[in-house]
Amino acid sequence: MSSENAFHRLLTQNRDFASKTQSTNPDLLSKCAKGQSPSTLWLGCSDSRCPETTLLAAQPGDIFVHRNIANVITPHDMSSQSVIYYAVNYLKVQHVVVAGHTSCGGVAAALGNNVVGGTMDAWLMPVRELRAQLVESGGFEGKGDKERAVMLVEANVMRGVDVVRRNPEVLRAMRERGVDVHGVVYDVGTGELRELEVGEGEEGVRKRMENFKVG
């Protein structure tokens, strides 16, 4: 199928979606037109195989979304930090989800030593730093390529959760209205999400609040 035909097929599918939605849930789109009040912020990867609304069987308006290559979350990225700020302060989301996935091309690139090109090498540096930590700690010892990739995916999600939890706006929301931060890995081969254990204990919470709380 040519790229032009593929695009027009998407337009046709959109018309089908609009017609079906109007028939099966006639109030949904008119409600969306009046505003949004999602319960969840999803921080995921741009990979086409991981469409959050689809894999969660959610509806338009359910999830506020930020996606980038390899779901890299750093305190210096103004795009993701702006999304977090808006979602927490204005939309008042109750859950923030950092989502990685299996067979991630960005993680595979970070595991290798080849030049990716363009801005990608700089963008993937935080993931390569995590790889270095796993190598130095012996975490990769005796592991095959697939196991290493999953370990790096998990480490990247955990680091993202940590960055989100240190965000001053998220800290305030966690304290004042119990916002929860979650880490998950999506298996592209099975379609299932696996929640990671991201608990930090009372002492961890106390130290984080002491070190990163502002205002």
Question: Topology, please?
Answer:
Elements: H1 3-24, H2 28-33, E1 40-45, H3 52-55, E2 63-68, H4 78-89, E3 95-101, H5 105-111, H6 120-123, H7 125-137, H8 145-166, H9 168-177, E4 180-187, E5 192-195, H10 201-212
Parallel strand pairs: 1-2, 1-3, 3-4
Antiparallel strand pairs: 4-5
Helix pairs in contact: 5-7
Approximate shape? globular
Largest sheet: 5 strands, mixed
% residues in beta strands: 5-15%
What is the structural class?
Answer: alpha/beta
Average of per-residue pLDDT values: 94
Tell me the total number of β-strands: 5
What is the distance, rounded to the nearest whole angstrom, between the alpha carbons of the first and last residues? 56 Å
Radius of gyration (Å): 19 Å
Order of helices and strands: HHEHEHEHHHHHEEH
Number of helices: 10
Helix content: 40-55%
Strand neighbour order, sheet with most strands: 2-1-3-4-5
Give start-end ranges of low-pLDDT stretches. Answer: none
Summarize the structure.
With 215 residues, this protein is an alpha/beta fold. It contains 10 helices and 5 strands, in the order ααβαβαβαααααββα.
What does this structure look like?
The chain has 10 helices and 5 strands; from the N terminus they run ααβαβαβαααααββα. The radius of gyration is 19 Å and the shape is globular. It starts with a helix and ends with a helix. A 5-stranded mixed sheet has the order 2-1-3-4-5. Helix content is 52%, strand content 14%. With 215 residues, the protein is of the alpha/beta class. Helix 5 crosses helix 7 (125-137). The longest helix is centred in the N-terminal third of the chain and has 22 residues, at 3-24.
